[in-house]
């Protein structure tokens, strides 16, 4: 990392390279965009980051992220909001910034009782706090303290940053009677002035209503959305051009990157196709997913790591023919497992967390298949037809997901598995039926929202459930705010205006 960064730098993206615990930072100064990858555990990390408090904060948080999909998504969303908060603090003429509530899932650093063990994996905890600071350095220190991280190395930086003009007077020989003024509550009642302590408490307790928040942020969202139109059209053109040129099934992204980042990734792939057209021909018939690592996932889709260079992509394209036999073996193992287990289907569910490579998936299927063959099971060939299951390597006991599919440990004992599947088959079918009903209901109410509110787009984050999205859409139809007309809305867990103008609102917004 650079020993000194310009004061006008701006963090664009911070990514943790799992599982190596490396951090990749993309920051911008003026017209120049820079990238750096480093290990946060290095002893020189803190010293290098004295000149870039934003990068230090984001990298420290990224290192402690919870790797599970929902927690990782919450952390990434909080980092986006935190970066926006820091940007607003640095805008010229900014006197105050709206209080912002953040939630992080962080790794537990001390041995203590985990009070959230039912919802968090061992070793992690949830941290929520509200920011109302007036400078970047204080914000950094507040976040570090809230997450129980050390701030000893930053005390010297704080002392050096306080100029004589900004320092509060203190009692001493020249001013023996000085003490800071703290007005009584009756002063604010009599004068009508706003009580800053009361405002802070209200900000912590009360979220804004949807109508109030829209009035304050609709213009900003409209401005950003209009500015992103050319980039959206370019993204659409690039995706269509690449899919047609190489007969691709689809191009997708694992994470919610902005339009600019997606355009850059497709432009990079387009340049590679011009430099090495023979290797790219092996992509025909595949689906491409831009994610954190290169390879092929359990579903047979080609993964392109966004931090990898062209040489690594080319090496993957050249080796794609060798994956065909591995895919055939994977499909054969799924068919054999389904035959032994009464027609149940083995499925792969795409997650936001670390992706399972096809090599690892095939190995798990092979091990599981051998365990089944070692013990002949008494299951009717079609008794579990229409049901589905996933194989997990980090589970200790079988379970039934709320969406109706079974989650089975790869090391599950066959006789125990048979008993569990037979006893829960009826419940699984009921949950699948309920899920399909909810999906149809959600699709219908979402369409009504798009038309009734004249929205340009309406979507939801993967962590938002059907039972949360449906009442949210119905309440939006009842509210019928004209300020939402023509906007792109994403139902999430928080309020935010994204960099491309997408409007995030919590599913449980207050009217």
What does this structure look like?
One of its GO terms (cellular component) is mitochondrion. InterPro entries: DUF4460, DUF4461, TCAIM. It comes from Hucho hucho (huchen). Residues 208-510 form the DUF4461 domain. With 511 residues, the protein is α/β, with parallel strands linked by helices. It has 2 domains: 1-28 and 42-153, no CATH class; 211-436, no CATH class. Helix content is 45%, strand content 16%. It is built from 14 helices and 17 strands. It has a 4-stranded mixed sheet, covered by helices on one side. A 4-stranded mixed sheet has the order 10-11-13-12. Strand 1 and strand 2 (22-29) form a beta hairpin. Helix 2 runs antiparallel to helix 3 (69-89), helix 2 (53-63) packs parallel to helix 4 and helix 8 packs parallel to helix 9 (259-275). The radius of gyration is 27 Å and the shape is globular. Mean pLDDT is 78; it is low at 1-23, 26-31, 37-67, 111-120 and 163-168.
Q: What is the general shape?
A: globular
Q: Could you report the average pLDDT, rounded to the nearest whole number?
A: 78
Low-confidence stretches: 1-23, 26-31, 37-67, 111-120, 163-168
Distance from N terminus to C terminus (CA atoms, Å) equals 47 Å
Spatial strand order of the main sheet:
6-7-9-8
**Helical content band:** 40-55%
Most strands sheet: 4 strands, mixed
What is the total domain count? 2
Supply the number of helical segments: 14
Overall number of strands: 17
